[in-house]
Structures are given as C-alpha cells and as structure tokens.
Design brief:
The chain has about 140 residues and is of the alpha+beta class. It folds into two domains: about 50 residues, no CATH class; about 80 residues, no CATH class. Helix content is about 35%, strand content about 25%. The strands form two sheets. Strands 1-2-3 form a three-stranded antiparallel sheet. A three-stranded antiparallel sheet has the order 4-5-6, with no helix packed on it. Strand 5 and strand 6 form a beta hairpin. The longest helix has 27 residues. The protein is elongated and about 50 Å long. The N and C termini lie far apart (about 50 Å). About 15% of the residues are buried.
Length: about 140
C-alpha cells in the first residue's frame, strides 16, 4: 500500500478502489495511514545508513527540482553517488537549503561540489557552505 501511495502516486481513494476491485475487500483509510507510519519507522535505519555512506563518499552529486504541494512551490533536493540517493524537501533551493540539518552537506568532507550548476564549497575549518572560493581559503 505504501509503495502504491508514495511511489505510484495513487490517492487513498484510488488505493481503496483498487483493493475493492482486486480483493473484493474494503480498505479503511486508517489502515493505509498505519502502513505508511510503519514503513516510515522501519526505514529510519536504512536512511541513516544511506546518509552515512554518502558522507563517507569521495564525491557526491547534488541536484534539485521544484515540486508543488497544496499550490506552494517546494524544492526536492537530491544528494547521491553511484550507489546511494538521499532526498529531502525544503522550502528554499540552493545553498540556503543545504545549511539546514536535513542536508548532508553540512557534515560532508571539505571540497567543492555543484548543485543546479552553482558551485558549493565546504570549508574544512568552519564547516560552512559558501558560493565563492574565498570563503573556503585557509
């Protein structure tokens, strides 16, 4: 159910109709929500593992794309390498989003990275994000 709702982008009512059609069994909305809550809790360990693996990577790619939720524009940020992908949604794009706790770049090793064509540098000393090479010199 969670896969249908989250990855398949099916609404609760469509999932209920599908279960009714396939299994001739009614499906309560609370059951779908409970399945999602359970999946969320079980995936916390996996998410932590993915974050750890990306933070230990030699190189990561950062990208972002706009998504609408209830008529408002948010940004889906992706950080990944050849094996792992981590995503988070934020109201802001670019460096501002990566200064938040949910971004992995705050704890990433010093170096330079690109996101949406913009250079991001992480200072080895201050562990701050910046858009110019001068703030990372020392």
């Amino acid at each position: 159910m969670t896969l249908l709702h989250q990855n398949g982008c099916l609404s609760v009512s469509k999932i209920q109709s599908l279960f009714e059609d396939l299994f001739e069994a009614p499906l309560n909305e609370a059951t779908i929500q409970e399945c999602q809550r359970t999946a969320y809790e079980r995936l916390e360990i996996e998410e932590a593992y993915i974050q750890q693996q990306l933070q230990q990577s030699e190189r990561i790619h950062a990208d972002e794309t706009g998504v609408r939720c209830a008529g408002e524009l948010f940004w889906l940020h992706e950080l990944g390498n050849e094996r792992f992908t981590y995503q988070f949604v934020h109201k802001r794009r670019g460096i501002e989003a990566h200064q938040e706790e949910q971004s992995l770049l705050l704890n990433f090793k010093a170096g330079s990275y690109t996101t949406a064509g913009h250079l991001i540098l992480i200072s080895r000393n201050a562990n701050t994000l910046c858009a110019t090479p001068t703030c990372c010199e020392s």
